[in-house]
Amino acid sequence: MTGRADAAEPTPAPRAWALAVGVCVLAALGMLAGLTLPRLPLFADGLVDHATVHLLLEMFSVVVSALVVAMAWHTLSRRGESMAKLLMTGFAAVALLDMLHAISYAGMPAFFTPSSTSKAVFFWLCARVIEVVTVLLVAARVRAPGPRLAWLAGSGVLVALCFYVGSFRLDELPATYVPGIGLTPLKIRIEYAIVAANLLASAWLFRRARRERQVRLLWMATASFVMGVGELAYTTYFAPSDFLNMFGHVYKVVAFVYIYHATFAASVGEPYLLLLRAERQLRQQKGELNDILRNVPAAIVRLDAQLRFLYVNPAFERRMGLPAALFAGTELDGLFHEDWRLHLGRGARQALEGQRVDFEFEARRSDGETEYTIAGIAPERDEAGRIVGVLAIFTDATERRRAEQAAQQAALFDALTGLPNRRLMQDRLHQVLAQAARSRAHGALMLLDLDHFQQINDTLGHELGDALLHQAGERLRGCIRHSDTVARMGGDEFVVVLAELGQDADAALAVAASVAEKIRLALAEPFPFDGLQVDISASLGLVTFHGEQVSEEELLKRADMALYRAKELGRNRVHHFDPTLQTQTLERAQLLNDLKRAVARDELRLYYQPVVGAGGGLLGYEVLLRWQHPERGLVSPLEFIPLAEQSGLIFPIGQWVLQRACEQLHAWRDDPERAGLTLAVNVSARQFKDPAFVATVADALQTSGADPRCLRLELTESMLHSDLDETIARMEALQQLGVRFSLDDFGTGYSSLSYLKRLPLDQLKIDRSFVQDLPDDANDAAIARTILALASSMGLGVVAEGVETPEQYEFLMAEGCRGFQGYYFGRPAPLLAA
Question: What is one Pfam family matched by this protein (predicted)?
Answer without folding.
Answer: MASE3
